Amino acid sequence: MLRFVVLFACLFAPLSLVNAQEKVRKTETISTIGKLTPSKLKTTEGLSEIKGIAVFTLASANNDGTLTGNLVYTLPELERQKIAQALNKPVTEIPANLTTNNLIAKFAKNTHCPDIHLEFAELDLELSGTRLHLNRFVLDLAETPSKLSRALCIWTDRTNKGVTNAGIVQYINLLLKGEEDEEQAK
Known about the structure:
- This protein has 186 residues and is an alpha+beta fold.
- The protein has one domain.
- It is 32% helix and 36% strand.
- The chain has helices at 2-23, 77-87, 147-160, 166-177; strands at residues 35-43, 46-61, 66-74, 97-107, 115-120, 123-127, 130-134, 137-142.
- An eight-stranded antiparallel sheet has the order 6-7-1-2-3-4-5-8.
- The chain starts with a helix and ends in a 9-residue tail after the last helix.
């Protein structure tokens, strides 16, 4: 009898582990296409235009129809040198990337796939003791074959039709967090 129990445990224990592993979902991420985005640097000599590459990475979907995420504003080397000269600082004190967390984006009116347009309000980024100002700007999420991208396409389509989106918002957040039960949100 003991042999039977040990044999049974050896045969079926790996199956239960495989089944448990199948429930764990990988997190999905999605970011906008990098876009050259102008900004203004206030110096003692006036305003200087600075051009950096803005990329927004989605962190969560919100029930009010907005998205929360992180923005990285990358300064090319020539722009960093321009800033260093304007601020009278060594270029080593000018970071190559400026990051803003928990930034809110909203869908542009009537946006849809294959390119979802996200609108951002004016924004000030901290830069070596001063501020870099970005006026309102738009970044694009390009459609991909991923579940997350497809869910965002469905959300924009439903929003354009005036349909409520609580289920799709929950599903997007499950994909972003990699939680177990995707079926809850469908």
